[in-house]
Design a protein that fits this description.
Bound molecules: flavin mononucleotide
Shape: globular
CATH superfamily: Electron Transport, Fmn-binding Protein, Chain A
CATH topology: Pnp Oxidase, Chain A
Radius of gyration: 15 Å
Largest sheet: 8 strands, antiparallel
Structural class: alpha+beta
Oligomer: single chain
Helix content: 10-25%
Number of domains: 1
């Protein structure tokens, strides 16, 4: 099935449920080199007058380098399907394996972005800002339990430039 371009504002599925329960793939790079990884932390909303996506990526992820090197990334949602593929892309690293092949996903190369033919919803995002989380900002003691004193997430704030659905 072909993707069709819509406004992100016409999507009424819960962003919290989609991310937290169904998960998504964040992908950066092109046919000349890309990587993808599963995410469940993040959000969708508005900032600086733009519809925006917020993702949180630990620096040790192989995908991190691709996010740094490219102006754009995509977020692919699968509507609760492809859970096995997403579990694989969230446990293995593209440093060691061809995750896409192993997961049985089909890459779609579109300009300077990459996403997956099996997705039901794709957000094409353009980076606007990045911030590293630091422990001095933690107000709830439990937050620090997510870290071992290092490898704090980097937040990328990105404009949602295009929304594709099936
Ligand atoms: C359900 C799920 C959600 C995840 N969410 C995130 C996330 O939001 N941020 C992050 O840095 N890692 C997250 N991960 C971990 C990465 O997906 C995982 O470390 C992955 O293997 C990194 O792949 P890479 O090294 O090829 O980039 C998640 C893993 C799973 C299974």
């Amino acid at each position: 099935m072909e993707f069709k371009k819509v406004s992100i504002r016409s999507i009424d599925q819960s962003a919290v449920r989609s991310l937290a329960e169904d998960w998504a793939l964040v992908t950066a790079g092109t046919k000349d080199g890309f990587n993808t990884m599963t995410v469940s932390w993040g959000g969708l909303g508005e900032i600086w007058g733009k519809d925006a996506a917020f993702i949180f990526i630990r620096p040790q992820r192989y995908t991190f380098g691709f996010l740094e090197a490219n102006d754009r990334f995509t977020i692919s949602f699968f509507g609760g399907a492809q859970k096995k593929a997403l579990a694989l892309c969230g446990s293995k690293s593209g440093r060691d394996t061809d995750k896409v092949k192993e997961a049985g996903l089909t890459s779609v190369f579109d300009g300077d972005t990459t996403y997956f033919a099996e997705a039901t919803l794709v957000l094409k995002c353009r980076k606007m800002a990045k911030y590293d989380l630091t422990p001095d900002g933690f107000l709830d003691d439990e937050v620090a339990d997510n870290y071992d004193g290092t490898n704090y997430h980097r937040m990328f704030i990105a404009e949602i430039e295009e929304t594709l659905i099936k």
